[in-house]
Amino acid sequence: MLTIIKKNKAISCVLGFQLFRLILLPFMGLMPQDAYYYLYGQNLSLSYFDHPGMIGYILRIFSEIFGQSVFVIKLADFVITSLTILSFYKLASYFLSKEKLKRAFVLLVSTIFISILSFNSTPDVPLLLFWTLSLLCLYKAIFEDKKWFWILGGIAMGLAFNSKYTALVLQIGLLLFLLFSKQYRKLLISPWLWISIIISVAVTFPVWYWNYQNNFASFAFQSSERTSSISEFKLNPGYFFGAIGHQLFLLLPVLFLVFITFTYKYIKRALLKFKIPQAKTLFLLAFFIPTFVGFFLLTPIYWVKLNWMMPSYITGIILAGMFISKKLLKAQIIIAIVFHVLVALQVVFYWVPIKSDDTWVGWKKLALETKKLQEKYPNTFVFSDDNYKTAACLNFFMEDKVYAQNIIGKPALHFDYLGDNLALLNSRNAIFLDSDKRFTDDNKKGEHPKILDNYFKEITELQPIIIKLNQKEVRKFWVYYCTNYQHKK
User: Fold this and answer.
1) What is the pLDDT of residues 119-132, one digit of tens each?
2) Angle at Cα 44 formed by Cα 38 and Cα 50, nearest 5°?
3) pLDDT digits over 233-267, tens only?
């Protein structure tokens, strides 16, 4: 086995990157996303307000088997992403020669986006796995005429949707492929295709039923605000260049430029020469173009999040494997190694302060300091006002329940659907925590959010909580003691 690894540079490279990620896992602190989706798993439901529940179910399974710890959460992400990598290898083997397969395999594993999926719990972790498994099954069903794979493909597509709503593009890509493929267009009237799609919808029933029970709150949240922003059609060059920056980081410059090159090549052929690629290439493009190009077309008028294009990377990297040269592949690997070393140094030593709550630093220490405050001010409950981040992280580390901004009448994502009767907190005192993301000193703020006056009799600012790392102040939280809570419906 060792001899095979030594002779095969591609396997050595892949194992090297994966070993690097595994070694780095224990150094990764809790991210707010980890804590929030862990909260999903500890409050089992058919679905959830802002996303379907697959990532929560996975974290629940791992925590039941291995116990509750930050490392177990990271291990879950690493294991699921490793399964995605193996599934990608199998899928790519259907399209590429042995040499090109190795290149595509190395391209995938060298990317920053694989590292992000391996370290950070998001719905994209299971989405990428079930997306890849869907394509594997659909390939078998279409190109090898294996009927049972239509059923398996339907199940996989349904599970992908149960991971994240953007998986709907799988069915769209499938239909687009069949529509533009002369060779396989006949499958549009095949009962197996529609059985597959019906099964995929049936598998998503829990998500639809939860939405039905909750006035379609999740679907409305994910669509209405974004549709409104897009319909305003206000050009913002910053959104476009921001999206390019994100993709350069996630894919690294070499792979991103290869993406742009072959995308331009195939679109030009289709629009100017009316040439449709051969069936297998068309299949890959059908699951790449709608997501990658589709979201890029929105970037001049809408802020496209860095992870929205990730599903397109699966077939995109297989296509890149057809084009990339050994020279460019070497450049990609060198850049990847440099970036990963820098990431590791940042994780371990935290040299560059992150002026955001989206950080792995300080949450456990904040929980310890908050417990001390509760001992000093007994019978108090704790809440915060930053969507989910502080509340989710404190809930992970503390025994007592921590509340979000629904305490003061604001929408609080899935915290609104946990079944809490906030009226039971009436007359109790509270500790309110407010993160100072760009703090410059350790002084008090000198004032409190005026909205607190509507729910509490008296608000007193306490000394802020200062989080230190390696003797350096890295985070600051304003603290307020609030008396006599009155819940308002």
Assistant:
1) 999 999 999 999 99
2) 65
3) 677 888 888 999 999 999 999 999 999 999 999 99
Model pLDDT, residue 5? 42
Q: Measure the CA–CA gap between 158 and 54, rounded to whole angstroms.
A: 11
Which whole-number Å values give the CA distances from 64 to 31, 42, 67, 163, 418, in the listed order?
A: 20, 10, 6, 20, 20
3-state secondary structure 383-443: EECCCCHHHHHHHHHCCCCEECHHHHCCCCHHHHHCCCCHHHHCCCEEEEEEECCCCCCCC
Q: What's the pLDDT at 430? A: 97
**Shortest CA distance to 44 belongs to which of 213, 210, 158, 215?**
210
Rounded to whole angstroms, the Cα distance separating 192 from 416 reads 41
What is the Cα–Cα distance from 250 to 110, expressed in whole angstroms?
Answer: 10
Say how many C-beta atoms besides its own lie within 10 A of residue 453's C-beta.
Answer: 13
| 154 contacts 200 by C-beta, under 8 angstroms | yes
Q: Are the C-beta atoms of 382 and 431 separated by less than 8 Å?
A: yes
Q: Which residues have C-beta within 8 Å of that of residue 88, sequence separation ≥ 6?
A: 105, 108, 132, 314, 317
Mean model confidence pLDDT for the chain: 92
pLDDT confidence tier of residue 228, bands split at 50, 70 and 90: low
CB 62 within 8 A of CB 72: yes
Cβ atoms within 10 Å of 349's Cβ, excluding its own? 11
Q: How far apart are CA 448 and CA 53, in angstroms?
A: 36
Task: Provide the greatest CA pair distance for the chain.
Answer: 75
What percentage of the chain has pLDDT greater than the value 70?
Answer: 97
User: Structure tokens of 232?
Assistant: 């305003």
Judge whether residue 58 has pLDDT over 60. Answer: yes
One-letter amino acid of 433 = L
* Model confidence pLDDT, tens digit, residues 136-167: 999 999 999 999 999 999 999 999 999 999 99
What is the pLDDT confidence band of residue 225, given thresholds at 50, 70 and 90? low
Neighbours of 477 (CB within 10 A): 21
